[in-house]
Amino acid sequence: MNKRVHFKRRAAVLALCLPCLFVFSAFRVRGADLTKQQADFFESRIRPIFADNCYQCHSVEQGKSKGGLTLDTRDGWMHGGEDGQVITPGNPDKSMLIVAVGYVDKDLQMPPKDKKLSDDDIAALTQWVKMGAPDPRAKPAASKLTGLTDKARAHWAFQPITKPAVPDVKNKAWCATVVDQFVLAKLEEHNMIPSPQASRETLIRRAYYDLTGLPPSPTEVAAFVTDRDPNAYTKVVDQLLASPHYGERWGRHWLDTARYADTKGDTGKRDLDYRYSDAWTYRDYVIDSFNQDKPYNQFIVEQLAADKLPEAQQDRTKLAALGFLTVGQRFQNVNDVINDRIDVVSKGFLGLTVTCARCHDHKFDPIPTTDYYALHGVFASTIEPLEKPIIRQPDPVQFADFQQKIKILEDEDSKIYFDAISKSLAEFHGNVSGYLTAFSRRPGGKKNASAEMIKAFRDQLQKGNLDPEFLQAFQYRVKRFDPVFAPLRFFMEADESDFATHVRNLDSFISRQGNTNPLVVAAFKNAPPPASIDDVMAIYTRLFASVVPQTKAYIDACAASVAGPPQGFDPATVELIEAPFKVMAASEITTPKLLQFASSLPPKFVRTFPFNFAKINDLELTHPGAPARAMIVADAPKPQDSHVFIRGQAEVKGDIVPRHSPEILAMGGKPKPFTDGSGRLELARDIASPTNPLTARVMVNRVWMYHFGEGIVPTPDNLGTQSEAPSHPELLDYLANYFIQSGWSLKKLHRLIMLSRVYQESSETIPAYEQIDSENRFLWRANIRRLDFESLRDSLLVFSGKLDPAIGGKPVNLTDEPYSYRRSVYGYIDRGHLPELMSLFDFSDPDMPNSRRSSTIVPQQALFLMNSPMAIEVSRDIVARPDFTWATNDTQRIVQLYHIIFQRPPHAAEIQLGLQFVGQEEAGEPKPSATPSPAAITTTYAVQQGRIMQTFNKNSRDPRRPIENQGTLVERRPQTPWENYAQALLLSNEASYVN
Asked: Is residue 944 part of a domain?
């Protein structure tokens, strides 16, 4: 191509892109308004951080505004404090709040040093500021707004599901199912008529994408178009419902709701592997459940309590259902993990924002704080066993190879562990008095710690050369009931003026305690009565010094042990050795236990000891001999009810709340306390009950949304009082009742909807109707819908003829070369670093339940299809297909490309335009008399000259390759005219939309 043509085409690209860029900028400005997702993020992540760490000093309600700053209202942080603005929305680097919590400036550190926020909390605040600091608190924190009113309880979604009478309509002949009668009745009320039926090519394309997420082949389209059987369309629907690809499509919808990902997210422990090696077994369980048409009520119960079902003991693959609870984001604060599980249960099954009640009664819905902490008790009484059960065995030969490779890494980790435990104990023994004194005087252990106390604590750490991270690592072992440290805690609780009383009561305390280490008892009995806490520290220092000579021998014996803890050591001495850190015998060590140990160590210690966690996870994720395991939960040995946390602050406890379901499910009665372990099974059965007013409505509304592009209620995860009123309330109840009565069968529900005339309408618009119902809430036409990321990528693979149809299996890397040909539902989802390509095409945010994806149109999407090596490879594969190469002339070739990409024949004008385009490409420069479309010019220029967007294909934020990949590298060579033309068609709107 000569330079003049090159310049002209570049000018054409700029002329076309500039308007798009302006539109995109305007869209971002308008997007600054608070969205439902932003409000949920604030309520679930930001408000609890403020409540736990800031309100004590910066609260209107508590009458405290240190530095002139309050944070319990939106107006408070917007006004700022004495030093000016604390938050610059959209810019964390210029936000004083982020600087303070990040301890970037030694003179500006909040909260005080011993109370520094977790990495999770700092990341959440930073993300919130980047989002523009959306804050739904329009009213002051002291407002008495509450949703606990009769009006809120009377909301339509909280009323029993009924079976409304089917309405009478004038045009009965148009109706094919009862769905049509409900929709037509609404149209006739407004003197409207439905659009005519869509063409057969449009209808089969719509059905295929809706039920399988894949386009039909030219052969399948031709067979349907020529089938004169009156039941031809019914046969297509039944065939698609029976396809294994149905489960892949609808399973992916559910995975959005379940906030599925293959990683924990940014846990703050970047030196430990943060991947879930077995999340994919939950994904496969979901796909299988949809393919089996598992009753939805059973699907619910298995995901919450499969471990408590007898049938799961017979079919262990059902245990994978518990991934619904365990594949979520992980936080350093256990209460945040519990909050995540409450959120996914309440939004996922009930369409309620229960987590808004973490700090206060729900402002709008009848959800009191006690409901939140009733559920908190359920999940606080739920544990994750360290060892995940095997649910499917691999090939024996491959399994043996896997075990051999794993053993090499585990043996190395065992040696690293004993080095780590030796150095950790040496650090403690080297300054017992310093660490225990620092622990006893930490400001976090005192109420209303003063600035002087905080400064004294910092000075003590610095003077004693003490590691604050190491102190934090072992201090959780210093408990009041611990056999070694109980007397220390007893004296720590004494006031200086009353220390002598504690000395006199020590024997009585030890007697009540019952399990105090005998060497500790003897040390206090043989020493002079302590006159101060310093004397107590001296006793402990001498006591630990006495076991130092035996520590190395004990660790060496543990390292050599092949059958549990080593014998021949005094139990009391062992208890002293293991007081700061438990020592495992070599035969007891497993990778999950080592992960637990490493997670308890200070970050700098973790960096010192190069455990093989990432390498082991690599093997489990990629080796064909790795067994499939379930990410299970179980009931705690002693389930307990939770206290209410006043204003969400865990250290300020209110009344204890019995574990029970949300009171709104009791339909005016009082919810019954759970008695079966954690209560998960009872909760699941309450949610899956046919008398529950929410569960069926929520699922039916989502199914309708995925078929029509808009739900009967537009907010699929919130049917509460703040949701928009349903467009067809009687239809919603009719379908919910039908869903329950049909055995909670999703396939029967699909069939009823898709065989309706409403579903089969054309998308052609009528200007007069646009004035009456511009959003098409009355469904007078079909909605044009944009393909989501998975359907777009999978369509490209189908067009190329290389789609791998295998069902299930371990995750693959979708965005790096060499490309995988697996369906997108099997892609590796990195929660902490979602690939840019997936974000670009509006992939669901895996940090939270999100049943409805956003749909944006931005220039970067087109640029990806213009310049991506994957798109280039697909265009080459399309023109290498036999049905294209067998064409004998250019017109037939264009017809074949239209059948492959659009599933329809081209119009005469489209054939002419295609011939002109290919002719110009073959000639090398445009002809003045035959100017192709601007889109064709843009495409040709971008494909040939602009391969600058390959970064969209790289997961560049994480330097580690998350998993190995299979596929072929894209051949780098100039494209032929027909390849350019095929890519131009891929860039068209028609290829990216279903009408």
From this structure: yes
Say which residue the tokens 């997108």 belong to: 824
73-130 confidence digits (pLDDT tens): 887 788 677 567 889 888 888 888 888 887 776 667 788 766 788 888 888 888 899 8
Give the span between the Cα atoms of 272 and 266, in whole angstroms.
11
Considering the domain architecture, whether residues 293 and 423 belong to the same structural domain is answered as: no
Residues near 469 by Cβ (< 8 Å), separated by ≥ 6?
Answer: 602, 603, 604, 605
pTM: 0.82
Q: Give pLDDT tens digits for 567-588.
A: 999 999 999 999 888 899 999 9
- Contact yes or no for 359/647 (Cβ under 8 A): yes
Domain count of the fold of the chain: 4
Within 10 angstroms of residue 294's Cβ, the number of other Cβ atoms is 19
CA atoms of 671 and 657, how far apart (whole Å): 12
The secondary structure element, H or E, covering residue 313 is helix 310-314
- 733 in Cβ contact with 162 (< 8 Å): yes
HSE value, Cβ hemisphere, 13 Å, CA-based, for 253: 23
| CA atoms of 567 and 832, how far apart (whole Å) | 45
8 Å CB contact between 3 and 941: no
Q: Which of 703, 741, 766 is nearest to 241 (CA)?
A: 703
The count of C-alpha atoms lying within 13 angstroms of the C-alpha of 811, restricted to the half-sphere facing its C-beta, is 28
Which domain does 567 fall in, by range?
A: 409-615
Q: Is the peptide bond before 230 cis (omega within 30 degrees of 0)?
A: no
Q: Is residue 293 part of a domain?
A: yes
Report DSSP letters for 183-220, one per residue: HHHHHHHTT--PPPBPPHHHHHHHHHHHHHSSPPPHHH
Radius of gyration of the chain (CA): 32
How large is the angle between the packed helices 908-923 and 934-945, nearest 10 degrees?
40
Together in a domain, 667 and 808: no
814 with 929, same domain?
A: yes
Query: Is 984 among the domain residues?
Result: yes
The residue out of 615, 649, 678 marking a domain boundary is 615
The two structure tokens encoding residue 187? 């149209």
Query: Going by DSSP bridges, is the β-strand pair 628-629/390-392 parallel, antiparallel, or unpaired?
Result: antiparallel
703: amino acid identity, one letter: V
Distance CA 55, CA 701 (A): 39
657-667 per-position pLDDT tens digit: 999 999 999 87
Q: Are 817 and 952 in contact (CB under 8 A)?
A: no
Q: Is residue 351 part of a domain?
A: yes
| 527 shares its domain with 654 | no
Question: Tokens for 396?
Answer: 């024996």
Residues 335 and 448 in one domain: no
Together in a domain, 458 and 590 = yes
Taking the C-alpha atoms of residue 187 and residue 791, their distance in angstroms, rounded to an integer, is 32
The two beta strands, 58-59 and 64-65, are: antiparallel
Nearest of 376, 377, 356 to residue 367 by alpha carbon: 356
